[in-house]
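User: New here, any thoughts?
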Amino acid sequence: LLEAQANGCVPVASRLLGVFDFAIEEGVTGLLAEIKNPEDFAEQITTLTSPDRWQRLSRAGVVRTRELFTYEAMARDYRALLADLQRGDYALPRPRSTLARPRLPWTAYLPRPVLERYARLLPSWQPAVPPDLDPE
C-alpha cells in the first residue's frame, strides 16, 4: 500500500489493523471498505470517478509517504528513539536470566579424582564439596 501511494495510486483496502491505523488515512490518502463486503468496495471505488477527488487523494498519498516513510524519515525517527532511550524516557525491564541457578557449585559435578588432582596442583584451592558427597 505504501509503495502504491508513493507512486500516486489511491488504494482501496480492507479495514484491517495495520491498514487503517498505519498505511492509509481514510479519505485523505486512500479509502477503506469493510472486510468481506464487495458492495462497500464497489461504492468506495465509484467515489474515485471524480477526477478532483482522485487527484487530491493521490497527491496526499505521495506527500505522506515522502514525509513519513523515506530513509531520512526512518533515520530521524531512530535518532529520536535512541535519544529518548538515552535520556531514560522509556523504562526498560530488568534483564532476567533464563537459566536456572545451579544448586551446587561447579566443582560438585567433578569426579573425585579430578578434584584431588586440582587440590594437589593448587594447594590453596579448596573445592566446595557438598556434605552428602564428602566421604568423611
Observations:
- Residues 110 and 128 are 11 Å apart (CA to CA).
- Residues 2-69 form a domain with the Rossmann fold fold (CATH 3.40.50.2000).
- The chain has six helices and two strands.
